[in-house]
Amino acid sequence: MRxxxxxxxxxxxxxxxxxxxxxxxxxxxALHGVVSxxxxxxxxxxILLVLLIVTTTITSTSLNLNGNVGITYHIDSAIALSAIxxxxxxxxxxxxxxxxxxxxxxxxxxxxxxxxxxxxxxxxIGMMSISCATAGVIFNLTQTLLSTYPLLAATLPWxxxxxxxxxxxxxxxxxxxxxxxxxxxxPFNTWKNAVVTTTLNLVINTVGAAFLAYAVTQLGWIGIxxxxxxxxxxxxxxxxxxxxVETHMANLEQIVDERTKALQHMNKEKSLFLAVLAHDMKxxxxxxxxxxxxxxxxxxxxxxxxxxxxxxLDSQQNLLELVNNILDLENLEEGNGMILDCKQFDLxxxxxxxxxxxxxxxSSKSIGLTFTHANSFLPIYGDRSQIRRxxxxxxxxxxxxxxxxxxxxxxxxxNNTHITITVRDTGYGIPADAIDTIFDxxxxxxxxxxxxxxxxxxLSITKAIVEAHDGTIxxxxxxxxxxxxxxxxxxxxx
Length: 494
Ligand code: ADP
Hints:
By secondary structure, the chain is an alpha+beta fold. 64% of the residues lie in helices and 13% in strands. A hairpin with a 4-residue loop joins strand 2 (62-64) and strand 3 (69-74).
């Protein structure tokens, strides 16, 4: 048996004379094999050997490890070498020629790669044939030398034969490399680079050839018949293994592909976030800078025009909120819970104050902003500034994602142990395929990017605050109809 690692040859400036010579010498050896087997005592066994080698070639499978090296499960050389003792070295050459030619005929991939031209096919066949014949001569020689030591004569020649076969192959190949780029190529290097495969080849060739030869000489055709079953089943096993490896590799590629895409997506989201962040920070910083310079030149304006100081404080507040959002999210991401400063307070008061604050933003887009609460007092236990942040985010979003002249409604009512607050708008709505991810950080609806600036952080913070108060937040939305966020908070939470 033989596992073969074949470097795929790329020969830009082949030396045709060398390739042709090797090919022709190899073919002559095989021809000699044809002549020598005529009149052999066991023709049927020889025919069976030919059938066996053709069967193994047809059932061979290649595993492509990367672009350059393919592992092919081959036992053809072991079969060819097994013919040496009974039929002679050139009969072995004949068998390997038949196998190489069959391989070329049946494996279209081989035809288009390492044996892509006729001259390469010729060389390859010749090389295998010469290697077999040389190994055969060495076999006969060592066996004669060791004839007085029967045990050694039955084993050692096979080891030497297998080594000779590998070495001759390597040598004939190395000559091409030498002719191609003038460098000396040590055929032992191929062994060093593929120690496991080469050793395995040697073992397969030694053991396989020895056993088969024993079967041929001792049992004749019955001995060979026995080999068909293991040959076919082991070829099938290797074929299944290769299929498994290929599927596994394809799966790995798919996983890597998906991960790369996810990372690219996240990277893009981060870049967008940074761009928006820079934008969001720039405008309040510019106003602080402008108004600050104005007050530096004309300090009396602070008293005459209190709006200037208010603008500075507003801008500072916006920046603080932005920074707080980022810090809070980082904190949550690290697994730290939200720090709450809980007290008993009246939610109606908080919502009314918010209504006043949001009025300017809504009027700038002619949006009607209506706050209603069924109860005049809505007692709640929680962190007032964080709860205020929840509704500031939701109302601000409702205004941002509603076109001019739309409406926003905020309604709050108590039912026994809970307070339910809805923030409803008549805006752009959220597409069904985006609704599940809307509370994820950095998540923004693609279509909204040119409608309003945002960082995609607000809703994830809002959800974290609501959940820290043991509450829930849900969303219902229909595109171009509107969106409703519903927050349910327990009265005695936190
Ligand atoms: P930001 O508004 O800063 O982008 P948010 O986390 O507050 O981030 O919101 C995430 C996304 O959810 C927004 O970008 C927007 O696409 C969508 N969204 C939020 N509120 C609404 C709403 N009321 N109507 C339509 N889309 C909304």
